[in-house]
Design a protein that fits this description.
With 394 residues, the chain is mainly alpha-helical. The protein is built from 16 helices and no strands. The chain has one domain (2-388): Growth Hormone, Chain: A (Up-down Bundle).
Length: 394
């Protein structure tokens, strides 16, 4: 009995490790782009609209393939597809440095989006399927989200440091090699997961299940869409706000690292807040605080912006773990994989389109006015919490 318990616990830890490492590297790759955008703008003479479009190419591809990747996993296996996606994205990051024109860069970003499209739905469903208890599942998904925030913290910071010492080309190649190393670690650990568990999940996945979701799921989805679109829209152009205030590449990397460090802290802070005041109230509090922090970044000097960046990260990224962790509470177990795929598709798609939209707006009305618009859109989540009341458990 003790051996069975130890084996089960090992499966849990290995599954969480695989999902966490995949989230670490893919989220790190995604948010590392914010460091490169000002450099690419200068090198390729790009407008804000074109910068936003580059972000849309990566995130849009990643979003559009979430649902197809969840179905493809039924045929070739979740872990195998996760490994292939990690290798593909890592290789494209290595090749950024050889991009000689925006068109080549755009093609690489599309390829990177293809590779990253497998990560969110497959990692989330792997973890949710192993951790069947509501409380432990929410905690495991929270740890999974923290791993992504740690990637957001270290990869942009490491890239900015390498850029300041060497070049942006060398930085992208070094980070891409790290991604390939992560893929090797994933491969070695994936072999240790029990075959019986994988076969059981594959058997459940092979069944055709009618998709059903209530109003609560769709309301949560809309909250996620607003949260993602405002976060991605703001972060894409935040480096340019810092640049206007005299920040260099190293300072921009530092501020972004503080924002992402705050995001990792925000997972725990928002989790504690949710336990104290409830999930929906914590969402409202964090989104209102997000709007205030965004407006504060426009009102203060660079030194104060640096000091506020940690608080901004707590508010900006902390809400997401609450939203992702609530998905299983609003759908049946049979619909869980599709629910995660649909949720990630919608939220990442919103985050993909918003930089393009806000970039076009910035070219017309100015970047500061666009950022004010972002702050106001955040507040739209408040009425959307009404259909979910009484349907979530902490």
């Amino acid at each position: 009995m003790d051996k069975l318990f130890a084996g089960t616990r090992k499966i849990y830890s290995k599954t969480l490790l695989i999902g966490g490492l995949a989230h670490f590297i893919h989220d790190g790759f995604t948010d590392m782009l914010y460091v490169f955008f000002p450099i690419w703008q200068a090198q390729f003479s790009l407008t804000f609209t074109e910068i936003g479009f580059l972000k849309t190419l990566f995130s849009g591809t990643m979003a559009g393939l979430q649902v197809p990747s969840s179905y493809l996993a039924y045929r070739i296996g979740e872990i195998r597809l996760l490994l292939l996606g990690t290798v593909l994205t890592s290789l494209t990051v290595c090749l950024y440095g050889w991009a000689t024109a925006p068109l080549v860069l755009g093609c690489l970003l599309i390829a990177g989006g293809v590779g990253s499209s497998v990560q969110h739905p497959l990692s989330s469903s792997l973890i949710a399927n192993v951790y069947t208890d509501t409380g432990t599942r929410r905690a495991a998904l929270s740890m999974f989200n923290v791993a992504g925030d740690i990637g957001k913290l270290f990869l942009p910071a490491g890239a900015s440091l390498l850029i300041s010492q060497y070049s942006w080309q060398a930085a992208s190649q070094a980070v891409g090699i790290i991604g390939i190393g992560i893929a090797i670690i994933l491969f070695k650990n994936s072999k240790k997961i029990s075959r019986n568990v994988q076969q059981e999940h594959a058997k459940c996945a092979s069944k055709l299940v009618e998709w059903k979701a209530g109003k609560g799921f769709w309301a949560l989805l809309m909250i996620g869409v607003i949260d993602s679109s405002t976060r991605m829209g703001f972060l894409t152009f935040f480096p340019f706000i810092l640049q206007e205030n005299g920040a260099g590449v190293t300072t921009i990397g530092l501020v972004l690292s503080l924002v992402f460090a705050g995001g990792a802290m925000g997972k725990f802070i928002c989790g504690t807040l949710a336990a104290k005041v409830g999930i929906l109230r914590s969402v409202i509090i964090t989104e209102v605080f997000t709007a205030l922090c965004i407006l504060g970044m426009l009102a203060f000097s660079l030194h104060i912006e640096i000091m506020l960046s940690l608080l901004l990260g707590v508010a900006l990224n902390g809400t997401s773990s609450i939203l992702y962790g609530s998905v299983p509470d609003l759908v049946t177990e049979e619909n869980r994989k599709q629910a995660f795929a649909i949720f990630y598709t919608a939220t990442i798609a919103a985050g993909a389109v918003s930089p393009w939209v806000y970039g076009a707006a910035s070219d017309v009305i100015g970047i500061k006015t666009s950022v004010i618009l972002v702050a106001l859109v955040v507040l739209l989540v408040i009425p959307l919490t009404i259909p979910i009341r009484g349907k979530l458990t902490c």
